[in-house]
Input
Amino acid sequence: MRRIGFFTFAVGVALLPALFPDNYFVMAVGVSAGLNAILAVGLNLLMGYAGQISLGHAAFFGMGAYTSAILTTRYACPSLIALTAGLIIAGVIAWLLARPILRLRGHYLAMATLGFGVIVHVLMVQATPWTGGPDGLNGIPPLNLLGWSVDSDLRWYAVIMAALLLAIGLSLNLVDSRIGRALRAVRGSEFAAQMLGIDTGRAKTQVFVVSALFAAFAGSLFAHQQSFVSPDSFNLTVSVELVTMVVLGGLASTYGSACGAIALTLLHEGLVVFEDYEMMIHGALLMAVMIFMPQGLFIGLSQGARRLWRLKNKASA
Output
């Protein structure tokens, strides 16, 4: 079923440009939704499967973006090397942070990750010689993949969606592996997992680092796609929105987290026409989904579709 779902998702992504040729708005929204989905899939590994909440995930998103921006604009570094450097920096910092911070649980862990995100955001604002301060950095060159410059909307859509499919595939494989089973055990009961011989500290550290790498990867792509970065793109609001995407789509569901990110991105774009009532409608819709689909949008719609199918078969019989 997962292979069928992956193939269906890939076909849908591939057909979208054919259905809306030369449509800048559709491609732009698709790129934004794809980046958010990569972030949500990575965060879902930490929250959904390991049961560890993070309110500072935008910090790793910003690390990847600023590393690529600084290396390419100030040191003329090739974009692929800058992207790799962003992954290394985010991975090392996540590994150093994971051991002490993941000893905390519940709201203590949430507050610790929140503090980390605030510290990184302040550094982005105050380290003006490196980051450009509140004004950010502009003039970031396009992503260059072995001589192929990603400099058009269609090319960016293709790259982002390929990256999203890669992220989903890696996530599904990780969940089905021994590490994934250990993470589900930790989420169920960390004490029981320890009694079974699982090194819970190591498992949580590994998933924290992997989740940070997903975010840094998306950040590097974001910097080259926007050709501009500023601290406002990586503040607390972004971290909260990422948590909302994961919960909205459905915890412990890779496709659910991706669908939650896409749905929330489309919701933001669709509610722009309502201007002053945008946040009110946005909040009401989120409340309705959580009340009537507590397991998440993806699982709720799947269950609804199955019920309709059964009713149709009973009626035809």
Notes: The beta strands are 137-138, 143-145, 148-150, 228-229.
